[in-house]
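Quick note —
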Amino acid sequence: MDATPKAAVLGAGTMGHGIAQLLAQSGFVTRVYDPVPAALEGGIAKARAGLKIAAAKGKISEETAREGETRISAATDIAAASAGADLVVEAGPEQLALKIEIFRELCRVAPEQAVLATNTSSLSVTELAAATPRPAQVVGMHFFNPPPAMKLVEIVRAEQTSPATLAAARAAATRMGKEIVEVRDSPGFASSRLGIALAMEAIRMVEEGVASPADIDRAMELGYAHPMGPLKLTDLVGLDVRLAIAEYLDRELGGHRFHPPQLLRRLVRAGKLGRKTGEGFYKYG
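Predicted structure written out below.
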C-alpha cells in the first residue's frame, strides 16, 4: 500500500463506524457506505466523535484526531465507496446471503487489485469467496468490539485466498497497529468458536441456577484473568448476535457444546438483547 492508502467500509453500525475510525486514524482515506441514510450519518458522526475521545484520553494525538476526521467521508453507494480503494471491509449483518449480494456488487465496481475483506465473526469466508468472480481477493478480517481499542485482528484464510491478498491484509492490520492471528477458514474460526462455547455454557449455568450472572462473570474475571466475563461480553456483543452465531455453529459442527440454551432464546424473543436495548443478563441505565 502507498503512503496514502484508501479504504472503504460497507456498513456503518457498531463495528462499521469503529473500523472506519480505526482506518482513518491509521492514515487511510476512508469512505463509508450504509444503505440506511440515518445509520450512515450516525456512523460518520460516531467515528469522528471516537477520534476526539481517543485524543482526549491520550490514545492518539490531537493532530492525528483532526487529520482522521478529515479522512472520513460518506459515500452514496458501493461504487462510490470503493472507488480507488486498496482495501474494502464489509461490516454488514451476519447474513451470508446478504454478504454474497454485497460482494457480487463489490466485485463489479471495486478496483482490480483491491483486497475484499469481510468482518464476519463466524460465517464461511470460503463460501462467500466461491460466490464471487474474484475469489482470490476475498479474505476475512475479523475485528473485535470496539475496533479502535481491541488489539486483535483475526485474519481468516479462505481456500481461495491468494498469498498476495493474505500479505496485503496482514500489512493493513499491521498499519492499524493490530496483533494478528491467522486461521484457516472453519466455522467460528478460533475466537468465535471458543467464545461461543464458553458463553453458551455460562448461560446454561444461569439457567440451571448454578450461580448468578455476576458471580459467573466474577469467577472468570478473577479466577482466569478474563478482562470481561462471558455474560457481560454477551450483553456487549448482543444476545441476538450471539444466538445467530450459536445456531450457525450448532448446524455446522453439531454436538451439545454450541446448542443455544432456552434462556437465551427467551431473552431474545423478549427483546432483551443486552446493552443496546438496556437489558440482557444485566440492566443498564
